[in-house]
Design goal:
It is elongated and about 45 Å long. The chain has five helices and four strands; from the N terminus they run βαααββααβ. The strands form two sheets. Strands 1-4 form a two-stranded parallel sheet. Strands 2-3 form a two-stranded parallel sheet.
């Protein structure tokens, strides 16, 4: 038997659903709300990291080629080093990660 659960959205918990995402106010959540896409924390983290990578390293990770931010792919050693250092910094920084709330739908 499969059970589906859903958390209550903010202000009752720290998660986002289709309704609460419209009021959350980050750049990515507004993109999701405007296009009626289903939000996920993983997509949010990928987007936020890709944006920071483009800003700091002036390149994008080809794994996430749908987030290019107008820069070239990371192809040389300098860019890869920047990418690696940026990845470690981003995903070890709780303040940055907390900007991407968990999704309420737990299917």
């Amino acid at each position: 038997k499969r059970v589906f659960s859903e958390r209550l959205a903010e202000p009752y918990s720290g998660c986002l659903n289709e309704e609460s995402i419209k009021n959350y106010g980050t750049e990515l959540t507004q993109i999701y709300a405007n296009k009626n896409l289903e939000y996920s924390q993983e997509d949010c983290l990928n987007y936020c990291y890709a944006r920071e990578l483009a800003k700091n390293c002036k390149c994008y990770d080809t794994t996430f080629s749908h987030y290019t931010f107008g820069v070239q792919p990371c192809l040389n050693v300098t860019q890869f080093a920047c990418h690696l250092n940026g990845f470690i910094d981003f995903f070890s920084n709780d303040t940055k990660i907390e900007k991407c709330k968990k999704e309420c739908n737990l299917n």
